[in-house]
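Objective 1b: paired records.
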Amino acid sequence: MSIYKRRGAAFCAILFLCVFLCVPAPAQRLTEFLGVKASEGTVTVKGVADGTYTSGGDSDHWTLLWDANLQFKLEEYVAGGQFWRGKFTSGNVTVRHKDVFTGNGCTVTMQSDGSGFPGSLITVQR
């Protein structure tokens, strides 16, 4: 059960970034965008997921932290779909995860940290 909650929190952060960069422009504002050649900016997202699952005498406590500070450039306006298309140009994403399981008189701690530019971490194929 705990693994689904952890994945759900990371999914929400990724979904937020995708939606933010693909929000359609309202039709009444379309004329404002027709003369624009490009747009750029910064997205900053921080989040924390923390939880405990207990069953019988066993317990599992996890913490997931993520921090993204990314610069982007929207280079193309797609009129048919009324959205901007672009890419992340620089920045950093940091993810930290810690899980402590206690059961049968034993404690297991797992921790992983990751950091980098998403372009070096994710490959998109068409």
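Objective 1b, second protein:
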Amino acid sequence: MVESEEEIQFIDADSYQGRDQDKLTFRGIVLKYLIQIGKLASVEYRGGFYTNYVLKDGSIKEVYVPDTREEMCNAIEYLYTILYPHFDDTMKANSKKFKEIKKRNEKEFIDKSEPDETIILGEIFYKNEKDKILLDEYKQTKLRLHITLLRNLSCFLKNNNYMQGTTFEEKI
């Protein structure tokens, strides 16, 4: 607990120099994100759902529990996005294949599902059981595709000696 207001200090982000270990590098961002992906990969993958909680006053609050498959896919897509400008020819080819398969899978789902839409909607929009099963299968396929992308990104990082200290900035 703070004893007086004099102890509180604000740091101007524009002029903050920090210590050497506080420096934010691209390599540091990538490594931290790999750790985050590792945490997401360490849980059971499940679909999102709504659940009700009873609050202290006896009222009920509905809360959405996120789809862990989507969280994992989003995390991998972010890593993919920040590494994209640094891709070599092999990773560019893998990236092209990833985008083609992703687009094909999305189109197949949209064509098979009942709502007449051009994008994949949230779970709540798929009312019949057939569409719910299709959506679940689509998300499982999407997760497997993203895990393959993560493997490709990991190979890309290894091939560039990323874990041994040679960073992209040093090569540019």
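Residues 31 and 163 are 9 Å apart (CA to CA). The mean pLDDT is 83.
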